Amino acid sequence: MKARALIPFTTLVLVTTGSCRDAPEPFVPPEREPPTERSWRLTFNPGDDRAPTWSTDGERVIYSAAEFEDTAATPGLLLSIPFLGGTGARVFPDVQTDTGPPRWLTTPAADPAGERLLFAQIIRIFGETICGEWVIDCDAAFRPEHNAPLLAQVTLRVRRFDASGALVDDPSTEVEFEGRFFDGIPNPIGVPGVWQIQYFPFHQAYVEDSTQIYRPTWSADGRVAFSDGLGIHIWDPASGSVTEVPGTADGVTPAWSPNGEWIAYTRLERLGSQSGFCRHLLIAGADTTVACAEQRTVYATGRRILSLIRPDGSDPRELGDGEEPAWSPDGGIIYYRRNGAIWRASLAGDEPTAVPDTEGGREPAASPDGRHLAYARRDPEGRYDIWIASLQP
To answer: How confident is the model at residue 3 (pLDDT cuts 50, 70, 90)?
Structure first.
């Protein structure tokens, strides 16, 4: 994981203009149908509900919600809700208040002891353009519609459920994403430096499919695996050390097995690249000046491959097409997204099968007793809610 100077950047700012604003209209959920034996809808948020996980006792589902109650402008708020249905509540009301600084929290995961929550805080999102809105002149072989990558930085945090201190007091590690930097090298195209843009497969997955590629996951011994988009890394919150898992190039969305022997992840296949210059032209009368220049490299993306590897980088395996893996409590089954639904694959080698009634689903999470599956399900309008599917025969 290599850090670069990222300049300039657009800092995530979630504020309202003016000194006050009208309160959002109260949200009234549609009439809820009673749960069936197979599945039921758990949340009814006007925004997206994503990244479900389970409390260690299996009684509640913890997830990230946007546009919740009086925090309508919040893109990510950690909530929990009884898995049989009920009212969602803020997990950390002391750090996600109505009047405090807005925070974008997502991808929660309760630790095996049930005392702490691991999650990602989005710190910086780049703007879609670097050089501004001047006239763009791009090389003929390059597609100018590819904008700059958006992911800039997230902070992984571990916080006790009963914590009362500030977020900055919790164990944390910063994850900066490769993708753009200013080289500052004089060149023959009329500007003293060029923005180097690398539109990696993980940037495309984040922008085009809202894949939360960095998703952290616990090991049984209290370590954390996560992705920086270009590979899988292991963070030890106790010591602060971060190490790379060899052989995981372009690995994202890791999931550590319950026994700690395996890390499942998604490998984003690269199929070559295309590069070219884009010059942003400032035109004043008859004069044309290259005001800003970008050298963009776009990597062609192929399959999303469900993969396994030992934490030390040994014994790599591929299980076929699939992404966003999650383990069963006994470690014998991997649930994952495939063809717009949730599938399951047995480590014993059985033929993978689709989980019934999970069309439109992603980000699966098995309950601690193995009887239910929480997942995010897309509705016809493109928004996500949390659903529960029974795993009973």
So the answer is: very low
Would you tell me how many other CB atoms lie within 10 Å of the CB of residue 347? Answer: 17
Share of the chain above pLDDT 90, in %: 58
Dist CA 115 CA 158 (whole Å): 10
Structure tokens that stand for 53 in this block:
């996980």
Under 8 Å between Cβ of 290 and 191 = yes
Alpha-carbon torsion (124, 75, 211, 332), positive or negative: positive
Buried b (16+ CB within 10 A) or exposed e, 216-246: bbbbeeebbbbbbbbbbbbbbbeeeebeebe
What's this model's pTM, rounded to 2 decimal places?
Answer: 0.87
CA distances from 200 to 16, 244, 339 (A): 33, 19, 22
Residue 23 reports pLDDT greater than 70: no
- Per DSSP, 96 falls in state S
In Å, how far from its chain's centre is CA 185? 34
The residue to which tokens 């370590």 are assigned: 223
CA distances from 104 to 12, 25, 48, 75, 156 (A): 9, 22, 13, 6, 12
| Stretch (H or E) spanning 203 | helix 201-209
Residue pLDDT, tens place only, 124-183: 888 777 887 778 888 876 665 556 688 999 999 999 999 988 898 999 999 999 998 888
Task: Write the single-letter amino acid at 341.
Answer: A
DSSP 66: S
pLDDT per position as a tens digit, 43-76: 988 889 999 999 999 999 999 998 776 655 678 9
